[in-house]
Design a protein that fits this description.
Pfam families: Peripla_BP_4 (PF13407)
Number of helices: 12
Strand order of the largest sheet: 7-6-8-9-10-12-14-13
Strand content: 15-25%
Organism: Blautia wexlerae
Subcellular location: Cell envelope
Structural class: alpha/beta
Shape: elongated
Largest sheet: 8 strands, mixed
InterPro entries: Peripla_BP_I (IPR028082), SBP_2_dom (IPR025997)
Keywords: Signal
CATH architecture of the largest domain: 3-Layer(aba) Sandwich
Distance between the termini: 32 Å
Order of helices and strands: HHEHEHEHEEHEHEHEHEHEHEEEEH
Length: 352
Amino acid sequence: MKKKIVSALLTATMVCGMSVVPAVGVAAADDTITVGFSQVGAESDWRTANTESMKSTFSEENGYELIFDDAQQKQENQLTAIRNFIQQEVDYILLAPVTETGWDTVLQEAKDADIPVIIVDRMVDVSDDSLYTTWIGTDSLLEGRKAAEWLNAYTTAKGIDAKDVNIVDIQGTIGSTAQIGRSKGLEEGVDNYGWNLLAQQSGEFTQAKGQEVMESMLKQYDNINVVYCENDNEAFGAIDAIEAAGKTVGSDIANGEIMVMSFDTTNAGLTDTLAGKIACDVECNPLHGPRAEELIKALEAGEEVEKLNYVDEEIFATDDTVDKVKAVNSLDEEGEYDVTPITQEIIDGRAY
């Protein structure tokens, strides 16, 4: 820890005068960069992969001391963790926030302590952007728009009228960046194409809650043919509920099947895509560790870093009905994105 090491160096100098022996020992310790990471929790396979990416990157072998805290989905735990990091005088704070709001005070405390804060995955909504140094993550709004454009292209290709598309949305944790962006992407698609959005309810990004919400929706609506799940774990729960109700999961919605769409592209999610249970899975890349390290190295070198750092992401589908979609990202830039039919070879070659 740099701040503590400086204090130790001053103490050693006072006690030992100009002796180089303690100074050399302290200098060697100064090479270690201490990082405090407040992770939102372990609610999904995606989150587990995100955590492992950070732990493997900020390892002792790579010259880091990582202080990891699992907030268990509670903002108050994250506020406590950040304040603990400040007291421990870490060199950098990584924060994967449970929700976007409520961070101004604690981030001001970190700023006052001259500790750079890197926001990871979800964004923060603060009154002053200088309260954090930089952000790494995915464009959740673009993800939602990609999914909506895929659904429009698929139903158009299959000759399915928009008024016959009946969607339920199993949302993520309400107020999280992923939920806000993915819900908005769907809602824009509903407005643009005239689909029927029957219901929206949070599945809290978990399989158990996703199943519970899907069971309830199936009891309320007998005409559901598209289930828009805002992560893979919710999709797993939805699939279990649909099949338990005696219905068929698949892409042939014109003939009574219920289509499941998802986000994250975890190994299990893409395996279900290969099996035809998830029709379209939009990637949300969890491997943020290496990019976070790049930013820390740049800051250590005194370099300027970009405020927003989006990671690249793909779209995978069960078949080749749709080969590409056009969508607008959060910076109002339109792009064309390939849709890749999933194969076992692709699944085997991925890191998560």
